[in-house]
Amino acid sequence: MNRTNAFALLNEYVKDQALVRHMLAVEAAMRSYARKLGQDEETWGIVGLLHDFDYERWPNAPDHPLKGSEILREKGYPAEVIHAILSHADYLADQHPRTHLLDKALYACDELAGFVSACSMVRPNGVTDLTASSVKKKLKAKGFARNVNRDDITRGAADFGVELTEHIQFVIDAMKPHAETLGLLRGTGGDE
């Protein structure tokens, strides 16, 4: 298991560049948390990178992420990676509960990374000057990025044991160095 092979697998199954950028954003957040918490950065990064690789082909529950887990199992990915990916789906929580720190980290970073990306896209400077307070303000605007589940963001931070504002800022800071790759260097110019 290495990032090169994981990224090749992702590209085999995903053509939508927005989805690829989402998985790269989650990978960045997961790698940053692994460094902070003294965990295996490669494992955490690959979980973030591959958590939605099956979504484009099988977007409906329970196919996503069950189909992906079958592929990962066939390719010899470790059980902890497969479990973490399965556990990010709420509808599989009974069979695959979020019990490990890795599982909780993925859940905490997934929706938030998507929301941070959405916030960045409406700012003249993209993610470069985005702050947690700006993101929290957008969280209250129900019409903004309405497909993002705000409860998942709040619950994810709580289950992971991190304070929400600090978590938001941590994810922003993890994504900033990758802003160009993530398409977040410059927003579309909307207002705060």
Task: Please give a structural write-up.
- With 192 residues, the protein is mostly helical.
- It is 62% helix and 0% strand.
- The protein has one domain (3-182): Hypothetical protein af1432 (Orthogonal Bundle).
- It contains ten helices and no strands.
- Helix 6 packs across helix 8.
- The relative contact order is 0.14.
Quick rundown:
The chain has 192 residues and is mostly helical.
Secondary-structure class: mainly alpha
| C-alpha end-to-end distance | 41 Å
What's the number of helices?
10
- Runs in which pLDDT lies below 50 for 5 or more consecutive residues are 187-192
Beta-strand residue percentage: under 5%
How are the SSEs ordered, and which strands pair?
Elements: H1 3-13, H2 17-37, H3 41-50, H4 63-74, H5 79-87, H6 101-121, H7 132-140, H8 150-160, H9 164-175, H10 179-182
Helix pairs in contact: 1-3, 2-3, 2-6, 2-9, 3-5, 4-5, 5-6, 6-8, 6-9, 7-9
Top keywords for this entry?
disordered C terminus, single chain, mainly alpha, Hypothetical protein af1432, 192 residues
